[in-house]
Amino acid sequence: MEKVHLTSIQIDRIIEMAWEDRTPFEAIRFQFGLAEADVKVLMKKELRFSSYKLWRKRVENCSTKHASKRIQEIDRFKCNRQRAISNNKISKRN
């Protein structure tokens, strides 16, 4: 994992984004500079092992976690019905 200093608030937000089905890894890279592999390392470190295994299984079966696998109509990082989230650079751009 690349040496990126993250606050506990940022780590919590990354975990939340990683669990969200509609949030691709590219959005996490855009906002926090972490590649998919870095997110996996972070999740393994921060979650209980059983939770990590559940998350990995979910991610492998979720086509919306990778922008290249998404259908062309989805061109945003977040649901258009999602309210702005504080500390979220992406939602502040809209």
Q: How many DSSP-defined strands? A: 0
Q: What's the helix-strand series?
A: HHHHH
Mean pLDDT: 77
Alpha plus pi helix count: 5
Amount of beta strand = under 5%
Kindly provide the radius of gyration, computed on alpha-carbon positions and rounded to a whole number of angstroms: 13 Å
Structural class: mainly alpha
Global morphology: globular
Main features:
single chain; mainly alpha; 5 helices
Can you offer a commentary on this structure?
This protein is mainly α and 94 residues long. It has one domain (8-73). It is built from 5 helices and no strands. It is globular and about 30 Å long. The protein starts with 7 loop residues before the first helix and ends with a helix. The mean pLDDT is 77.
Draw up the topology in text.
Blueprint: H1 8-19, H2 25-32, H3 36-46, H4 49-60, H5 89-93
Helix pairs in contact: 1-3
Q: What's the short story on this structure?
A:
By secondary structure, the chain is mainly alpha-helical.
